[in-house]
Predict the structure.
Amino acid sequence: MSQLGNELHAYRFCCPVCSQPLESIAPGENHLECGLGHGYDIRRAGRSVASPELHLDPYPLLVENGSVKIAVK
């Protein structure tokens, strides 16, 4: 799960191209990147920076009474 300002985003934390784990480029940035350099824009629904047809798998979020719940299959 990532927080950018007041926005919460949750994605499956592995690259859809190479299955490597994703990491934030820098705290507060809106991009995630795998070890091989595949980048994804958190604010654009996890869309790939280089290939718009690729995207991260989102997890539904529910904010309820100050708690955040993530639906994981």
